[in-house]
Amino acid sequence: MGKDKIYNLEDRTFAFARDCRFLVRNLKKTISNLEDCKQLVRSSGSVGANYIEANEKLGDKDLKFRLRISRKEAKESEYWLKLLKELNETHKDRIEELILEASEHKKILSAIINKLK
User: Fold this and answer.
1) 33, 37, 44, 57: which could form a disulfide with 20 (CB 3.0–4.6 Å)?
2) Are the CB atoms for 37 and 67 separated by under 8 Å?
3) 9 Cβ partners below 8 Å, 6+ apart?
4) 61 in any annotated domain
5) In which band, very low, low, confident or very high, does the pLDDT at 98 lie, cut at 50, 70 and 90?
6) Under 8 Å between Cβ of 99 and 83
7) Considering only CA atoms, which of 21, 9, 85 is closest in space to residue 47?
């Protein structure tokens, strides 16, 4: 991720998923890394995919549902990143940046959900 923040959430979630994919390319191909990376690739992509679906809502109930799924996927991405950080010493700084980004996604999505209530 660059130093300049992306404020469009669709673009920002795309950048997060992309950056997670760049990360997994560079990690050692251990059994645990392969499994954790598969999960990270899925969950990081789902953050943005569900956010996009929320924007194409079929109603308020669908909007909240999709936003909650997007937030859940951000939480899950954070979990996989934390596991990867513990087992990949040489990539800790890069992974920590992604953990912070996942956390920011959670906060942003929570704020949107709370405004809808």
Assistant:
1) 44
2) no
3) 51, 108
4) yes
5) very high
6) no
7) 9
The model's pTM:
0.91
CATH of residue 44? 1.20.1440.60
* C-beta atoms surrounding 79 within 10 Å: 16
Residue 3 lies in a domain: no
CA-to-CA distance for 61 and 66, rounded, in angstroms?
9
How many Cα atoms within 13 Å fall on the side-chain side of residue 86?
7
CA 47 to chain centre: 5
Q: Cβ distance 66 to 56 under 8 Å?
A: no
φ and ψ of 7, to 5 deg: -100, -20
Per-residue pLDDT tens over the stretch 15-26: 999 999 999 999
Which region holds residue 36: left if phi is over 0, alpha if psi is between -120 and 50, else beta?
alpha
Q: In this model, does residue 3 exceed pLDDT 60?
A: no
Confidence of residue 1 (pLDDT cuts 50, 70, 90): very low
